[in-house]
Known about the structure:
This protein has 468 residues and is of the alpha/beta class.
Amino acid sequence: MVSADRFMPRLEEAQRLVNAGRAAEAEAGCLAVLAESPGLPEATALLGFIVARMRRLAEAETLLRTAIAKRPEVPHWHFELRQVLRYSFRLDESLAAAREAVRLDSKNAQFRNGLSQIHFDRGEYDQGYEAVLDALACDPEHPESHLSLAHALLASGNFRAGWAEYEWRFRSRPFIAALPKPIRPYWNGMPLPGRRLVVSADQGYGDSFQFARYIPMAAARCGGLTLVCRPPQIPLLSRVSGVQRCVTDLRQAGEHAAFCWLASLPYVFGTELATIPTPIPYLTANPQRRAFWRAELDRRIGSDGVRVGLAWAGNADNTADWRRSLPLEALRALAAVPGVRLMPLQTVIPAADRATFQALGLSDLSPLLTDFGETAAAIANLDLVISVDSAVAHLAGAMGVPAWTLIYEPADWRWLTRREDTPWYPTMRLFRQPRAGAWAQPIARLVQALHDYVGNARSAGPNAVARS
């Protein structure tokens, strides 16, 4: 058998490349090694890891199983196979691979945390808690295990403990790499009379919209509040009560007394399930842009019927996108509901959906949806928004517009468990998968609900639906 030692520098470089997001270069490097040493297990397993990141799951599974067959004693390869099977919604097999990784290296916090994730995926919370606590026994400072625990606690409504664990996200490598280092003390909620507080968005667009409800509460305790967010959010978030200034970089914030991450405000304010602030709407559209979109929608989709905004795909770079986004074809039946006027709320129409998009005769408004201020103004002229778990769903909920959200299983923590409503957004209804990857049932229920919604609107008369 050819020794892997002489290839290790090249394999380590391929590993570095894929970790840096340069998967195509990493794949080329691995293939070059395999051309010189066909079947080398280390290169085969690494190639499996690389193509899994490119969502070529069947190929990744074959490569990893091939490597494992030659060297079954390598726990990390079983751990990677666990994730590939998880992405394929094959949770029984994923659980077996996770258990094998733990058996081979029982002191590894990462492997035990991986086992906990599969249990949580399967709805086995007791086993999941046990596995994640075992992970923390192996390494009490393991951020990813603390985050797994946080998500499970928050999803089950145990907010007090969950928020505390959620603060561990700032020790996780992705957060450390992506976020700026504050230069002032972290805010603990204390009054800052006459002093400025800087609050910064720290996660995705949807998270920012969810937690923007806390900004007026924070502003009430300080002499002024500056918000750090991304450019597409400024037209919308600058309108939130208490925001004096919006900037896109912490270095632009100017002098301030303290700093807080936006998603840490529920922790600062000690939010419990029964005390979630719901001053709906707390996000509002600019009146001039709302008027523009009223005229634009009248021209594009008409003023009659029930106007339904549709978002079927989120940000492809989101780590949960493999669970949440749908092909437009899966929602084709919505367009066939009599009386419905569909309006796509996608800022980008995925290439894979173009044929269906054209077949349904939908109007491409993406060139006009240049920022979330525009999206909000469009939503303000709709009767209903239907969305996957994306920023659009959060935006509609924060605006108080009726919103129906398709929820994957296991759901993101904010949607809790086994609920069809959400305390975060009173005007939102949830359509949940019965199990991971199973979209047929919630989509069928959603289509029927839309039939009923249109029927009720017709029965109530032409003025029954009041747009926001």
